[in-house]
Write a structure and sequence with these properties.
homodimer; alpha/beta; 3-stranded antiparallel β-sheet; 12 helices; about 10% strand
Chain lengths: ~375, ~375
């Protein structure tokens, strides 16, 4: 039952379709933003867990402090310092995944401030902002809250360029605003080249968000938040009120797993695998769906496909599921309604051998929808 | 580092003292509401984890649905049905501990409604209500939100009697209000006698909250919420926005651990151990601290001690930590300031052999504070 609430971020018709897809035998799923389960280092994680359970401290099973494991916070701080930020372990709060880190950050944005986002962005973040009744607006507007994925964007798999970074930072500074920097896909950039977090440029106005979900596995639900130092105490209080602490079991496992070089090797292997799959999907789409445009991603888990076709995404999805293939409809990623056609195809969790067959099915579903439209 | 953020629910001086206590070697801690780590069934949990990691579904490591594991929700529903409630698996939302379940329930109470609570209650819940800027009032007031622990109260370890239950239910009905029923300590009632949840009486206005933290282990961070059916969809949306889902690893472990009779055996052993410790602590307090009153608890993890002594609880705690013993000051449990002296002593996680020595140290600290006061 490897499933997801990820590409189906609200309990509605989208969710119903996602659940239908999950139950369809033989369906090839391009939906969900899931990492490849074949990459999960099950044996290494099992050994790490064994060590964590048998270490006499009962740390893996007992309550812990709200900020989380000291060793993990040290790890996160070290990684961020290696990317150019000045941060130490005391500045890091371990969270129940990146999702909670974004929610915590949002709770600390100036009251009532609209949140500027990309025209297409992570649906889970949009749901947080909507649940909190925040107004959403373009990143370029004059506001005091911003949400971006600078290192690897979802759904496009692109990195913010220098001009975009500088424009954002100076807009935030001008309006005394705060930036939620979602680095969830950092570590999936195909070339392995690291990026400087915005946190390095403006620690006083950046909430840096990260997670082990995309690079290791999401079931642990371990992420982190580095809030501006002036807001650290409030972030910790809110974290404690929300759910006391990130789960001890996964934290203890991670502490042991992260010893040595295993994780670096793992990330390298994963990047190569995802790059290969991205290329296979791009080739297949170019050949079989020439009416859909995309920019080749530099990292992440997906292709973002756009078109001038006048097609109902929901109907296409329903037809696709009948043809045993699924994807995430573009409207889930948009904060304002748009008539223009877009879908996200995730290559990440699809077996390489299934990619071309999945695209073939999708092309058939698309053709069927177009015929019906004309007919 | 078996520690807690539990008896120290905000990042303040209380927290500083709790952290100081945790770092003091040889200190006997009556603080924190921690289960006895010696009871953790480490071997059985290890086996369950091994099974969960090696079952080919990658369920333990991948994303899951926001409502949580179907098998766990079925387990929870079955347990509640055995206690007299009409609930099925679809009505249960797995959460990141009881803390998150309370927070979710609060988010669904009528906007702006004050929350009625016992004069002494769980500090973590008070922190949620305060963080959300809710007004707190007595349970007997005319309001639309109520928070209670009917099966086993914290800190007193008592069960609501029939008259109290009926009064609460009719008050809630009269004001079209909602009751958050926190059953966190259910299963620790010494006699093993189950209780009928308020959920059984008024499913349309009760949020039932439960957890595996007190009966099994808190590090898993797995609890649940049964919201009124009309609010289930909203609860799921909010859960997803908050942190997507409860962690898959601990859920997969629990599914396997709960097969068979192990957990029932475990709870029986635990109840006996806690009853023995409660009695040992009660004897010792009666002998060494005759100026402190308490009512013997019927379950739970603690004694609630009151006195007419004019003593500063914070100073007593600081003095006690110097004497290598700690406890939770009473003000943490009260929603309104009170001049009357009270402290909570948890017997749950203290080694039986240390109980009397801990009380001896506390009696010495108390005497020292009283001398200073007179001096």
């Amino acid at each position: 039952m490897a499933t997801t609430g990820f590409g189906a971020p609200s309990v509605d018709e989208r969710d119903a379709l996602a659940r239908k897809a999950a139950k369809t035998p033989g369906l090839i799923s391009f939906a969900g933003g899931l990492p490849d389960p074949k990459l999960f280092p099950t044996r290494d994680l099992g050994r790490a867990l064994e060590g964590a359970l048998n270490d006499n401290t009962s740390e893996a099973l007992q309550y812990g402090w709200p900020e989380g494991s000291a060793a993990l916070r040290e790890y996160v701080a070290r990684e961020l310092r290696a990317r150019g930020a000045r941060v130490n372990a005391d500045g890091v709060v371990m969270t129940s995944g990146a999702q909670q880190a974004i929610a915590l950050a949002l709770a600390m944005l100036p009251r009532g401030a609209a949140v500027g986002v990309d025209p297409e962005s992570y649906p889970g973040a949009l749901e947080i902002f909507r649940a909190a009744r925040r107004v959403l607006c373009d990143l370029t507007e004059a506001t005091r809250g911003f949400y971006v994925m600078p290192s690897v964007s979802n759904p496009r798999g692109q990195r913010l360029n220098t001009a975009e970074r500088e424009a954002l930072l100076s807009r935030a500074a001008k309006h005394r605003g705060f930036i939620i920097e979602d680095d969830a896909y950092e570590g999936t950039w195909f070339s392995g080249e690291g990026s400087t977090p915005l946190l390095a440029e403006a620690p006083e106005r950046v909430f840096q968000v990260g997670t082990f979900s995309k690079t290791l596995c999401p079931g642990l639900r371990i992420g982190w938040l580095v809030p501006p130092p002036a807001l650290l105490r409030r972030a910790l209080q809110q974290k404690q009120a929300d759910d006391l602490q990130a789960n001890s079991l996964a934290q203890a496992l991670l502490v042991r797993y992260l010893e040595g070089e295993r994780f670096e090797h793992h990330k390298r292997t994963a990047r190569q695998r995802y790059r290969r799959k991205a290329r296979a999907l791009a080739r297949s789409v170019a050949a079989r769906l020439p009416e859909l445009r995309f920019r080749p991603p530099g990292g992440g888990f997906s292709l973002w496909l756009e078109s001038d076709l006048q097609l109902d995404q929901k109907r296409l999805l329903a037809t696709a599921i009948e043809a045993k293939v699924s994807f995430d409809p573009g409207y889930a990623f948009r904060f304002r309604p748009s008539g223009s056609f877009a879908i996200r195809l995730c290559y990440s969790a699809v077996a390489e051998d299934d990619i071309d067959e999945g695209v073939r099915r999708l092309a058939r579903a698309l053709a069927a929808c177009r015929r019906k439209r004309r007919g």
